[in-house]
């Protein structure tokens, strides 16, 4: 076992000297990739989400002309602020985002049963102006609907007469289009990060040492080929695990920057979701590590290994696109398929569904077995004399 740990520490030490490898292990996968994938989602959701429970201050010109409307706005968490005489100038200058103008003919038109004019002035170039406009417009539409019903009742007419159909929709599916996309985002992020985290060390551990002529002296040492492969495997695995845990923390932080809204109520971004994701992807870390080491062992040169592993980077993308564009049932066969099973299980977890541990166990066991197969093939390759050719 002493020889095993010497090999592990040697490979880790060599990889720590490689700045490019450390960038992809500690920066790209854990920080930059989550920021590029999740950051725009968080920004756009927070920017366009309308929270009707949050207090909103709205400047109103001519509020005295519509006292009932002002009380209705106040009941819906909208504070009314009286506008200045020249209320359009602050809008143009960007000092205000939104002004509601009650026209002088509002009272007369309202009393006569005609449409009462209101004007929403806003500056769309100001950040948050459109969100405040949609918030105010939604409340005004409610008031408009309520007043319309009261006018029908005042004339002795039932408003339901003008609604000949009562149409309801009942979706029995447990998944929505957007939920599928967000559910697939986390495993895609983790798989891609792990691939990048172990990529360069896997290339350097076999193909790189062959080109530097340091592999042959290593093979003649009194170390079994099994310990040699396991040492290299463990070294790569250590960086793959870092590339698994770090983006989990980053993704948890970014998703929890989302404002409380209807969007966040559809998903479960709790700490337990990310802990479960880490547990589910531990066998995947073994799978990807064994996969990378195996490809590097069969490559004849560093360039060939980089080319083959570059193509292997497509592996995490295959289940992502399959599940996004195809209706794949979640059964024992698909759950037992490495990577595909993790995608399906994470999709359910993010949607707040209870994890079926029987399916999770099947997925983890099957993934571990395939990883063991890759590792055995790598050991077999290291026992061949053609390894040095």
Describe this protein's structure.
The protein is mainly alpha-helical and 389 residues long. It has 2 domains: 2-47 and 176-388, no CATH class; 56-162, abc type-2 transporter like domain (abc type-2 transporter like fold, 3-Layer(aba) Sandwich), CATH 3.40.1710. Helix content is 66%, strand content 5%. The chain has helices at residues 2-16, 19-48, 67-75, 88-93, 106-111, 129-154, 177-211, 215-219, 225-255, 262-265, 271-298, 302-312, 317-325, 332-335, 340-350, 357-382, and strands at residues 56-61, 78-82, 98-102, 118-122. Strands 2-1-3-4 form a 4-stranded mixed sheet. The radius of gyration is 31 Å and the shape is elongated. The two termini are 28 Å apart. The model is unreliable at 174-178 (pLDDT under 50).
């Amino acid at each position: 076992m002493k020889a095993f740990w010497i090999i592990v520490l040697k490979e880790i030490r060599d990889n720590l000297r490689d700045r490019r490898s450390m960038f992809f292990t500690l920066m790209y996968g854990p920080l930059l990739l989550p920021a590029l994938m999740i950051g725009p989602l968080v920004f756009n959701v927070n920017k366009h989400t309308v929270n009707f429970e949050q207090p909103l201050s709205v400047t109103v010109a001519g509020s005295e002309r519509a006292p009932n409307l002002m009380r209705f706005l106040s009941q819906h968490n909208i504070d009314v602020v009286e506008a200045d005489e020249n209320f359009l100038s602050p809008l143009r200058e960007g000092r205000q985002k939104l002004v509601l103008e009650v026209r002088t003919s509002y009272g007369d038109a309202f009393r006569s049963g005609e449409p009462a004019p209101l004007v929403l002035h806003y500056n769309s170039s100001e950040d948050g102006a459109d969100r405040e406009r949609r918030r105010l417009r939604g409340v005004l539409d409610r008031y408009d609907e309520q007043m319309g019903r009261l006018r029908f009742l005042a004339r002795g007419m039932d408003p339901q007469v003008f609604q000949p159909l009562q149409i309801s929709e009942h979706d029995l599916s447990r998944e929505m289009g957007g939920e599928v996309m967000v559910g697939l985002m986390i495993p895609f992020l983790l798989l891609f990060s792990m691939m990048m985290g172990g990529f360069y060390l896997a290339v350097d551990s076999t193909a790189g040492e062959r080109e530097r002529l340091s592999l042959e002296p290593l093979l003649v040492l009194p170390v079994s080929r099994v310990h040699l492969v396991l040492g290299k495997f463990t070294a790569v695995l250590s960086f793959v695990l870092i590339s698994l845990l770090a983006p989990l923390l980053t993704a948890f932080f970014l998703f929890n920057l989302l404002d409380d809204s209807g969007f966040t109520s559809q998903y479960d971004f709790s700490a337990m979701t990310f802990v479960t994701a880490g547990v589910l992807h531990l066998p995947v870390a073994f799978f990807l590590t064994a996969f990378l080491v195996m490809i590097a062992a069969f490559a004849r040169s560093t360039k060939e290994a980089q080319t083959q592993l570059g193509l292997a980077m497509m592996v995490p993308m295959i289940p992502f696109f399959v599940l996004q564009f195809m209706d794949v049932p979640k059964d024992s066969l698909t759950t037992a398929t490495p990577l595909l099973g993790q995608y399906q299980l994470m999709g359910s977890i993010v949607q707040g569904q209870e994890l079926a541990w029987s399916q999770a166990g099947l997925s983890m066991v099957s993934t571990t077995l395939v990883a063991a197969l890759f590792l055995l093939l790598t050991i077999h390759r290291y026992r061949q004399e053609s390894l040095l050719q």
